[in-house]
Amino acid sequence: MTDFEQRFRIQKPVDTMSENDKRMIHDAALEVMETVGVRVHSKNARAVLKRAGAIVGDKNPDVRFPRDVVGALVSKAPQKIVLAGRTKEYDLPLDGTHSYYTTDGCGVSVWDSERCARRKPVLDDIRRTALIGDYLPYLSIYEPMVVASDLPERVHVVHGMKVAMENTQKHLLSESTTTAAEARAQVKMAAEIVGGVEELRKRHYMSAMLCTMSPFMLDGTATDAAMVWAENHVPIHITGMAQAGISGPVTTAGDLVVNHAETLAVVCIMQAHSPGAPVIYGSVLTGMDPRTGSYMGGAPESTLLCSGSVQMSRFVKLPNSVGGMGSGAKIPGVQATLENTTMAMDCARVGGEVVNGLGVPDNSTLLSYEQLLLDHEIARMTIAIFRGFEVNQETLALDLIKKVGIGGSYLSQMHTLKGMKDIMIPMLWDSDPYDMWVKKGSKDPIKAALEKVDQILKTHKPVPLDRGVSGRLDAIVKDFAKA
Questions:
Q1: What are the C-alpha distances in Å from 162 to residues 99, 367, 462, 465?
Q2: Considering only CA atoms, which of 280, 308, 295 is closest in space to residue 211?
Q3: Of 63, 29, 62, which Cα lies nearest the Cα of 258?
Q4: Helices and strands (H and E) in the chain: how many
Q5: CA-to-CA distance for 372 and 384, rounded, in angstroms?
Q6: What does R_g of the chain's alpha carbons equal in angstroms?
């Protein structure tokens, strides 16, 4: 067990749903899969499902899933996996005892704090955020955070992953892949890092995301890309995004039925294609504003959906990944921090394993460097709370309590000095008295976050890739651009 893994350990999850609640949602999803089905816009996926026993029509892409077929296929998926770093120091076991935090991808704007306005994202934003992510001690997984507007659309995903590989040793998550060619290029790059394709099948250095199209549709090219991931045993975060009241029922239970059915359908495809391929039960489910229908990423309803999907993942014994942050706030600051704190805390309570969304408010579309640092503090505090505390002879300190007695002080005791190392010291905000805080410049957390960003970018030097590996990555990217 590494120190990095150990810092993310949390106590046993607490269910907020009864076993009967979960069983009812599961049974409802199975009924929908069998009677309504899922529209699968991938001939390859329909072919493997037909061979596995699913009911595939000749004249349309709709697929229905008999219950016994679902049960047989889902049982092939591994219940525990390890998301590997570039080195084993950063390996992350998904075994139900940890809660990890990731950045989020697909930002289409960047918050310019000096101008208090938005700007277009560029490839250098991926370099900078990967470097920051490499530094931050409670950021577990890095996902390229923006769509680089200074690159052609066709190549931005592969370029972004290469830059990420060069600037962080942590596990990488690819979100924006939409074609099998993009997936194959990224597999080649990841294989260069770990020492070959066969080694990549054992060491899951990168994982990837497949988003469903609610209700009950799967994009053809994205599904084909996911099948490339599956055959190379790159873990797939199956990310449903059913919005309650629009692409799913307005009720929490009903929206969870839609997500559960879509998720199990993807699990079936990947297991039919490559039995034993690692899959992760993911979701970014949200409520809506009843006045406008707009997406409400940080609403209480979204938090309940997040909590429910985590519990449904455990019901079917799959690792989970969840949109545990992703505030609807239009700018970084108070609203984003409050909403992300609420969601992160509830995710940890019910056992969220991969909590996605640091640093991207406005419903995961706006990269904010200061919010990335604020969200990292949320992650640190959440882990500290849900790690809990030990009760034993050392922590009870009964002999010490008797020794200090009435009116004494514990400050000079060795027991206190030893225990201080476990106290969380904030990275951003100041705990000094008011007068001292004023003398030091009266910095609010956002100003402190921006100063910390500048410090990290100036001083942190990520461990470089081997020069030969770096050259081969360049060649892969160039070949992909030419194809």
A1: 26, 19, 14, 11
A2: 280
A3: 29
A4: 20, 19
A5: 18
A6: 23
Q: Which two tokens stand for residue 474?
A: 């360049």
pLDDT truncated to tens, each residue of the chain (483 aa)? 689 999 999 999 999 999 999 999 999 999 999 999 999 999 999 999 999 999 998 889 999 999 999 999 999 999 999 999 999 999 999 999 999 999 998 899 999 999 999 999 999 999 999 999 999 999 999 999 999 999 999 999 999 999 999 999 999 999 989 999 999 999 999 999 999 999 999 999 999 999 999 999 999 999 999 999 999 999 999 999 999 999 999 999 999 999 999 999 999 999 999 999 999 999 999 988 889 888 888 889 999 999 999 999 999 999 999 988 989 999 999 999 999 999 999 999 999 999 999 999 999 999 999 999 999 999 999 999 999 999 999 999 999 999 999 999 999 999 999 999 889 899 998 888 999 999 999 999 999 999 999 999 999 999 999 999 999 999 999 999 998
Helix 369-387 and helix 123-135, axial crossing angle in degrees, nearest 10:
30
Two structure tokens written together for 40: 């699968």
Residue among 202, 276, 203, 280 at smallest CA distance from 239: 280
Q: Which CATH fold topology does 3-16+75-387 show?
A: TIM Barrel (3.20.20)
Other CB atoms within 10 A of residue 337 CB:
21
Residue 7 phi, psi dihedral angles, 5° rounding = -70, -15
Place of tokens 């002999």: 399
Contact present, 366 and 360 (Cβ < 8 Å): yes
Listed in sequence order, the residues at least 6 apart from 61 whose beta carbon sits closer than 8 Å to its beta carbon are 39, 40, 41, 46
> H-type helices in 53-172, by residue range?
67-74, 123-135, 156-167
Task: Parse the chain into domains and list their residue ranges.
Answer: 3-16+75-387, 395-422
The amino acid at 159: H
State if pTM tops 0.85. yes
292 CB-near residues (< 8 Å, 6+ apart): none
Give the integer Cα–Cα distance in Å for 337 and 382.
Answer: 13
Strand partners of residue 240:
283
The secondary structure element, H or E, covering residue 452 is helix 445-459
CA distance 199 to 274: 17
Closest residue by Cα to residue 22 from 269, 251, 316, 391:
316
Distance in angstroms (rounded) separating the CA atoms of residues 292 and 398: 59
- Residue 139 is encoded by which pair of tokens? 């950021």
Closest CA to 287 of 223, 183, 234, 363: 363
Nearest one of 314, 212, 208, 187 to 268, comparing CA atoms = 212
d(CA 76, CA 56): 21
Hey, what are 222's tokens? 């994205």
